[in-house]
Design goal:
- The complex is a heterodimer.
- Chain A is α+β, with helices and mostly antiparallel strands.
- Chain A has helices at about 5-35, 80-110, 120-150, 170-195; strands spanning about 40-50, 55, 60-65, 70-75, 160.
- In chain A, about 65% of the residues lie in helices and about 15% in strands.
- A three-stranded antiparallel β-sheet of chain A has the order 4-1-5. Chain A has a two-stranded antiparallel ribbon with strand order 2-3.
- The two termini of chain A are about 20 Å apart.
- Chain B has helices spanning about 5-15, 20-25, 30-35, 45-55, 60, and strands at about 5, 65.
- The chains are: A alpha+beta, B mainly alpha.
- Chains A and B meet through loops of A and helix 3 of B.
């Protein structure tokens, strides 16, 4: 019999630490949004005006910056700005914490030496589904906010844009996890057969 | 499933308990119970061999097929 693999237990502990850190950072960011006087950031998509910047390479000549994303910071805040900033923070923190909890649950069963249980297939399906939905919805939300910014803000030197480019790497990882979940479901069936083989 | 296990009858005839059989063949009581109650999905030849050796019986004494 091979020696027990300690990696799942180590990863489980690290995931637990990551959960605590993400929750702490979320709380700090949210408290700062409500109770400090500093500026608040909103995500934007933009391109600087061609005549406002210059990028030159000896090898490749003139270049222009485009398809940029960044944050615009407003120093004067009102309830609407605080709400937007808080919502943007929560939109990323909540799925991140949910994914970390699911991952920790998965790693715990791995560490126990019984990977092929129905719960693991369901957990992987959840993680994959959240990743796919998030990869599409997050970009949709960013695009929506970019459209709102385009219609609301006056700019000089840059022009605001709205582009919908889903994070396909996250969607791909989600699809891979759904496939792995199917493998785990089959593994669960085989494990049940094995458990009832005397 | 239409496979009947006659372990209870064989143990009674040989005046042996499940615990004694478990100790002699090296199969846990839990697994023997699964076998005895008909919940097993499969039985390994090694297990069948060990049980038949201890109970001095043939596989057909332990397992029969009941036509549906």
């Amino acid at each position: 019999m091979s020696s027990p693999n300690r990696l799942p237990a180590v990863l489980e502990r690290l995931t637990g630490i990551a959960i605590v850190l993400v929750v702490l950072v979320s709380v700090v960011v949210l408290v700062a949004a409500f109770f400090t006087d500093g500026g608040l950031d909103l995500p934007v998509q933009f391109a600087p005006e061609p005549e406002s910047h210059s990028v030159t390479s000896d090898a490749w000549g003139q270049g222009t910056i485009h398809d940029a994303t960044g944050l615009v910071r407003f120093e004067e805040r009102d309830a609407a700005l605080v709400s937007l900033s808080v919502a943007n923070t929560l939109f990323y923190m909540v799925p991140a914490i949910a994914l970390l909890f699911l991952l920790r649950r998965f790693l715990r069963t791995l560490a126990s030496g019984e990977p092929f249980v129905g719960e693991n297939a369901r957990t992987l399906r959840w993680i994959g589904s959240i990743a796919i939905v998030f990869g599409l919805v997050a970009e949709g939300l960013q695009t929506t906010m970019a459209v709102a910014a385009m219609n609301s803000f006056a700019t000089e030197g840059v022009h605001l844009e709205a582009r919908f480019v889903p994070d396909l790497s996250v969607v791909f990882i989600g699809l891979v996890l759904l496939a792995v979940a199917e493998a785990f479901r089959r593994g669960t069936d085989l494990q049940a057969d094995s458990d009832l083989t005397i | 499933m239409a496979i009947d296990i006659h372990l209870d009858r064989l143990l009674l005839e040989r005046k042996m308990t499940l615990t004694e059989l478990s100790d002699r063949v090296g199969i846990t009581i839990a697994n023997l119970s699964i076998l005895k109650t008909g919940k097993a999905k499969a039985i390994r030849f090694s297990t069948l061999n060990a049980i038949c050796e201890e109970l001095d019986c043939q596989p057909g004494d332990l397992i029969t097929h009941r036509p549906d």
